[in-house]
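Possible regression after last week's pipeline update?

I re-ran a chain I had predicted before the update to compare outputs. Posting the input and the new output here so someone can diff against the archived version. Not blocking, just want to make sure nothing changed silently.
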Amino acid sequence: MNKQSTLKEISQYTGVPVSTVAAVLREDPKCFAGPKLRQKIMAAARKLNYRPNLIARSLRTGKSNTIGLILPNMRIPVMRENLEIIEDLVWQKGYRLFIGYTHMDTDREEALLVDFVNRYVDGIIMVSMQLEPYESYLQQLAEEKFPLVYISKNDIFDLASVYTDYFKGGHLVAEHVIALGHRKLAAFTADVDKSYTGSRTEGFITAASQAGLSVEFLAVKEKGSEQKETYKVFSNLESFVKRGYELAAGVLSKSDRPTAIFAGNDEIALGVVRAALQLGIKVPEELSVVGFDDSDTAIISPVALTSVRQDSGEISRMSVEILLDMIDKKLKKEDPPVIPHPVLIEPKLVVRDSTGPAIT
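New output (post-update):
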């Protein structure tokens, strides 16, 4: 491999002052070099094998033009949408993205968070399942005013958070099935081992209670299973389908079965639909089923699912906008922006073939 050149060597090769060479190569917007001069400098940099020392630059300027994105995995459709939109948005603003996947492992999640901070990223956007295991480190980052935006429900720290108004989403589902005349309701939830305050499940149960109805409430997580392993298992969407199927097979075999089931996500709902059809129960004529996320699963289901749509575009846009504002304020040594906590994004109920009037 050829020896890497320096700014001084490029300056000598092109006859252009070092300051101008440096400004062009770091894409300084205040540099007024014309297109021909820029092409000349860039061509020389390629020929002489110039590579900028990004770590040295970030230490000098306090800015690395990189952002960390931490996601559970790419199996969940909403995560893929977030990734694509966020990557495009930050690219347009001149940033590059470092991506890490936790696979629902809190130890790995904390390690990624520490690693990104140590790599001098300007800020981090993260989607997390749990915060408690490493809350002391997050508290430290919050006190240091490190730019971090959380795309998940967060009841622990005063972190900037952007996520779907899950409570309203669940409320919309209950209003929909109740309006269709359903009175025997069930909810299959993935809100495992934690208070579901503000969740899609609470929204559903609250709306049902307001209508004078009770809800048969079943957790997707099996009793007695260890929490950390459960999160790993359900990072596989097939596990959600299987569990939805198992729960529905038990509930729908009863003589006094529900006429409407709200599933915590589209994959659980798909399992419910499959169980119902195998038991000879027609959807939606005898059973209405509603999912959450409005993912591709909602369309490929044997009966197209009514589902709650999360606005990934708006969630991603708001997360990037807030993070870049935080980064800008930190660079200017100004107080962090005052951010409403949390920023809730409106969900939308998308009605398809899996819901219909209750049998009277």
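Follow-up from reviewer: compared with the archived run. The chain has three domains: 7-52, 60-163+312-345, 166-310. Marking as no regression found.
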